[in-house]
Amino acid sequence: GVSSSSSSGLGADAGLEIRTRSVEQTLVPLVSQITTLINHKDKPKRSDKTLQAIQRVGQAVNLAVGRFVTVGEAIANENHELKEEMSVACIEARRAGETIAQLTDVASLDHPESDSHITIFTDKTGVVKAARLLLSSVTKVLVLADRIVIKQIITSRNKVLATMEQLEKVSSFQEFVQIFSQFGNEMVEFAHLTGDRQNDLKDEKKKARMAASRAVLEKCTMMLLTASKTCLRHPDCESARINKDGVFHRMRLALEQVIDIVTDSRPNGENEIAPISIYSGIKEFKNKVEGLRENLYFLSKENLSTMLEVILEHTEDFTDSAYTSHEHREHILELSKQAKMELEQLVSAWMQAQNQKTKDLMEDLEVAILKTCQCMNELKREVHSAATSLAADLLKYHTDHMVLKALKITGVEGNLEAVAEYTCKLSEQKEQLVEMCRLLRHVSGTEPLEITCIHAEDTFQVTGPQIISAAETLALHPSSKIAKENLEVFCEAWESQLSDMSMLLREINDVFEGRRGEKRVYLSLPRPGKHNANLKALKPVKLDTEEQAKIAKLGLELHLLTSDVDSETEKWEDQENEIVQHGQGMSSMAYSMYLFTRGEGLLKTTQDLFHQAEIFAAEGMKLASTLQAFSDQVHDDDKHLLLLEAEKLIPMCKQLQITAKASVQGKSATFTKVDACIQKTRNVMTLLCQLLPLCSKLMRKNKAGNGYLKSAPPWREDRIRTGTNAHAPERRAETFGIKSLENHVANMTFLESK
């Protein structure tokens, strides 16, 4: 049946997660052509023009797949270990492309209805199946090809490591110069490969980690040169050896990290990312607290208390710090105490509301939610102010680079005592800057900025001692040109990290004040019209073309599932059955959500989409209770299976409701929410594809079909069920929920009347 194809289809390829933009972009044209085909499924006006167009697209898909597969096969031949997997995926893709070409071979048909020739008009599930197979096999080919890029990067890293080992052991200048020039070329190749990869990554967090590691490698290449030369010139100098070892060690760590990111070897336990920041802890905590408005049972009070404890534990980084002003410390301690009290109030109001949901108790809960969130916002503002004011002071104080200048001068004088004194000062400065980075990390506001703070902290930690060992070497060999040059290189790295900090501080402040980063693009333009004041709150937003391209594959999967659900519901004799009606309603809504991903249909803005997702989830909950009632009337071995599947429906719909209601700010956050809503809708539809045939089978077995669960007449008496005909989106979207549809139309006339 159709349901089996849906369960074995795209959903099952979870292992084929697309991590790079290039793979995503390659899929875009194919997805749009397949979409065109599937939209032509339901007997369009059969003009010659339409028939030729269908045939053209079908052939274009087949040709494109043919070319694509030829490249895939060539890659397979060159890469032995992927050959088998790649060949299978290529054969699958080619077969699916040919099927599509056969089914769309319609231009020559004088009598499309003739049974002799199966076409897109007579076998719509065939096209859906072929499309699904084509998408998953092409994705597989791309992901396998991507593995080869990863292999190139690993090979390049291995070359760099091998040459580094030679460099470390070299004892003559001549040999060093030869090997270093080879090392330089290999580093350039590695830099190119990893730079392309960095730009291609979709995950902003990984991108930031990659950028940090590559910056280390770039800086270290120069340090490696001068530190090694110093060591060769002064072979018995202990501080020169320490200095050189530090550079090699840091370089190996950075290479390791790049490979970790490229191979995604720590997808879950990203153990090198430090514990969570106060900022993200508060965000998470507030989300959970605000979630109580929708659902009083989705988490335990212990859960909330633990979350608050973790946040308050992190604030000790501020209150214990010698660099936090007395005033900031007092405020943070007061707010921590207040937060505990507010949470106690909240828990008591929440427990009472669980016992009996009276209007008064729900109002008490609402007040407690508002007060708790308000307190957390104040705490966030206070730690932000503490971290950023400390950073601003330190950066202003250290921009003169007094200590570095003094080290260079006293080093050249060979004044060991003075050098020792200034290295102590530099160590103090390093401690201050490291502390500053730790505190800034807590308030950085976005994960990429958080990673940049961790990188900065790391750089100060490592560069401080390296400057000290370089200065000691110079003081011991005051006339050594190379020792002087080496100290310069490390001081320069310190200075450039300090100036990067000023930029980082600006970005952190911008994000906090909503000027940039996540939120910059998001001063959404109100619709034209004179009086826009009361519209600004609406922020109507569509997906831009780049976002549409990103979500096209997910949209298409949703579309294919609506076709599956439609063909399942059409098989039922009793079209008035409640299960069928809920199924059709959900399919209708999912279809309008799919149209939204293409910038079409009745859902005009992201807000409409979220509203639709809520109604879809509510319809799913209704279906779940209908299924429970149905299972009571069934006496069969399959009853257990039905209940098992139906039980999955409730948490899935609840999750979707929570996602749809969560408040987000900023362009990228809104897109992430759209993506999550469509994904969760897809998951519910996949489950629906399994539930419908099961119910239908039980219905036939139990002969309960005669009038069982007859539903009230739908609100549209002339309800016409259409297939997924793209020419009739209005009728498909009838279940958009009549209320919101009316509001929508009212809004549009309201705008025009202004």
TrEMBL record:
MF annotations from Gene Ontology: actin filament binding; cadherin binding
Keyword Transcription: no
PANTHER family per record: ALPHA-CATULIN
Pfam families for the chain: Vinculin
InterPro entries: Alpha-catenin/vinculin-like_sf, Alpha_catenin, CTNNAL1, Vinculin/catenin
UniProtKB keywords: Cytoplasm
A GO BP annotation: cell adhesion
Name assigned to this protein: Alpha-catulin
Gene of this entry: Ctnnal1
GO CC term (a single one): cytoplasm
Compartments where found: Cytoplasm
Family: Belongs to the vinculin/alpha-catenin family.
